Amino acid sequence: MISIQNLKVEFSARPLFDNINYVINKNDRIALVGKNGAGKSTMLKIIAGLQTPTSGSVTKPSDVTIGYLPQQMRLVDNCTLREEAAKAFDHIKELDHEIDTINMEIAERTDYDSDDYQSLLERLSHKTDVRAMMASDNYEAELEKTLLGLGFERSDFERPTSEFSGGWRMRVEIAKILLQHPDVLLLDEPTNHLDIESIQWLETFLKNRRGALLVVSHDRAFIDNVTTRTIEISLGKIYDYQVNYSHFVELRMERLEQQRRAYENQQKMIQDTEDFIEKFRYKATKAVQVQSRIKQLAKVERIEIDEVDNSRLRLKFNTAPRSGDYPVIAEDVSKNYGSLNVFHDVTFTIKRGEKVAFVGKNGAGKSTLVKCIMGEIPFDGNLKIGHNVKIAYFAQNQAQLLNQDISVFDTIDYEATGEIRTRINDLLGAFMFGGEASEKKVKVLSGGEKSRLALLRLLLQPVNFLILDEPTNHLDMRTKDILKDAIADFQGTVIVVSHDRDFLDGLVSKVYEFGNGRVKEHLGGIYDFLEAKKIESLSELEIREKNTKPQQEKEEKASKLSYMEQKEHERQVRRAEKRVKQLEQLISDTEAQIAEIEEILAHGDVTDPAIFTRHGQLNKDLEETMAQWEEASDELEAIKE
Question: Which residues have CB under 8 Å from 327's CB, separation 6+?
Fold first, then answer.
């Protein structure tokens, strides 16, 4: 269906792809894999027609449609959720309009025997056949089913898209692409902004849809469940396997072992040949043999090892002295933002050494409870942190807290102590900062690179309690395995907020489920929890939807009756938005005052000590205002959810 022929891409004279050839067939389900920087996203863009290769071609039939979801996109917020999702059907509406126009023209014509009239009938027949194949007469119901599957509530449908966070707006784009039913679906990291239930719904949808799929994802469980073919990009070449990812890993290990043996044999042959040439170079009696060996050596096609395998590197957290028996005890903990209740009556105890997962839909309060444990936001109830607990917290915005003006190497060098200092280069290499990359300034790194650097820095802190909020979003599979092994070996206590089932599998022994304002404890691993929830099949989701429909109708009716509550919510949003804007303006004004003083200080002839006092006070004020702004922003986000 789509043929990639002699594809070549070069960046700064460095080949990213070198004469790549393969075919995407009608119902192929392909996982596109490779280390970071191998060119996976570039390949998707070329197939989607958004990027031109240096040479080669991508050919497809003219009637084949492609749906492409990039990792990041520019989103326009000028309509409601329902209206934005309905844009997926614009092509159907246009086709319906064309059919109506042709029907009207036919009704007005009387030249039944003319070629023009016959041509008109043929156009109508073709358009009608195309419309019938789309099978979207009840697209409103399909739209609602898709949005609900991706985690939206019915009460969200009439909300402006501007009220949703970036992750939720990305779900809208996923919904639009799925609703268009393209012949070929290109998905670049589609699970990064989805919770576990939404990922499972997407898996079921993709397994049941017809058409080709090409997906880039670091979620091993996801691609194992939705793909049956794996294409690896490595050193500009591709390796095509007609198996899913897990089976591919086994075959790849065999291939690399064969490659290493062939490389070693070739290196021995080259060394023997070079030794012969060097030994007999100046002997006239061996001149013919020497020249023959030189020509033979020149013709040798050198074998390359695909990539250095860092997966065996075992990272180890710098463990602090032992904590008390119960690092966290929560009793009747509640959190409210105005009249909005995030969760209530949360009671649990985490024992020393336990590794637990916080799971649930986005906005259910997982990160909010973490912030309560960290003492970053106020709450109601009792939350006790145990004796001698040393916490390391990886927040989703952790990358923003790095010093932007120092190098990657210095960031780790300043944090490392003891024996680990001798392995800094190994650590940086394992986290894809080897070689020249270690000398880059932090400020020039991408968002994903900053997240990896922040995570690596966390490994070096002496702690006995880890709290990790979505630590794997920007990590490839090999690095996730390294991190998972490090956490498994960690002797302290761990809370992981994550939607990555493969990462959690075998790592946690208890799952806390967030939803409907409550936190429920489930003993066992992540798949024990999923089996208990019985949410792995589409039929179960449909049954749940039918069972909850009467309740949803009651909720919709109640929402119509609670006009005053809606007005109160709108007032809270406006008040919170006003507070955020005021703090942003105060931050801007304070930064301007600091800049003015620093410009004066730069001249070096200041003698008045008051200006130094003023400079220190302004920096302190700025720090306090930034903290207030962060809390106000969190409150605004929670109110809007």
Answer: 350, 351, 352, 385, 386, 389, 464, 465, 493
